Amino acid sequence: MDLTVWRTFVTVCRLGSLSAAAAELHHTQSAVSRQIAGLERQLGVPLMERHARGVRPTPAGEVFRSHALATLNEADRAMRAVREAGDGAFNRPLAVGATPSLAAGIVPEAIRSLLERTGSMRWSLLPGLSAQLHNRVIAGDLDLAVVTDAPPGLPNDPRVERRFLGLDDMVVVLPVGHPQAGRGPVDIRTLADQTWVEDNDGSAALLRRHAARAGVSARIDLTAADLLGKLALVATGHAIALIPGVLTRALRTDVTAVALADPPTRGIYAITPRRDPHPSATPLLEQLATAFT
After folding, report:
1. How many whole angstroms separate alpha carbon 239 and alpha carbon 227?
2. Residue 76, pLDDT above cutoff 90
3. What is the pTM of this model?
4. How far apart are CA 9 and CA 69, in angstroms?
5. Predicted confidence (pLDDT) per residue in 210-221, tens digit
6. DSSP assignment, residue 274?
7. Interacting residues of 255 by C-beta distance below 8 A, sequence separation 6+
8. Quick check: 206 and 172 in contact, CB under 8 A?
9. 246 near 266, Cβ under 8 Å?
């Protein structure tokens, strides 16, 4: 099959529009339509369906999109490797992913320590949730990702190597004027009447499980789009929140973190692809292990 057509299909899926894909790929819309139609004839199933705002993949199209994306990424990596071998040097940037709390401190610190030992190196850091980062490692977009086993947990995937880095105690973050601020370990039962805010299902599940173990419930009445929004709602007194302990060093000044008695924990892991590992991934793993130790 022609990978050019596969690339067209993946672009249409990403943009949700034939015309937008045609503009990005510098094709005409009719040419893009013909490529998709030809691919559907070749596979014998419809891959796209129209809706009010454009197009989207059918269930069969979504399956094909996932495999096509992995194939295109692998093809791109193969071409890069050949060019680098021809140049006699390895210069692929190190692509690192991390959950937002880990990207806010520990991972950049580990990269800094690596650069102090190895010298200049091209690299990038992409924040994301653990499931998203895992998928991007599989797709070849990331050379290493630092993720957590917070609910729903990490898949047991033979395509990645997984290394345990340490346990992270969750803490509660409060506005600076809160009565419990500065009180030391707080029992979750003393916060049972509080309004909580959460920004993802994993953290919410940890909070509910911890509260249930103490015989109370947590009123998660507010939802934030991301970690920054979650902290903003705490800072302005609208709610309190459960956050990772690794984030405490990077908190804004108008909130304060307080330890919980018998806190919920989450495991921190580094995952790397089993195939085509980046030569700088292993040295970065060592720096990450040192940071957690």
Report:
1. 13
2. no
3. 0.67
4. 10
5. 999 999 999 999
6. S
7. 173, 174, 175, 176, 231, 234, 235
8. no
9. no
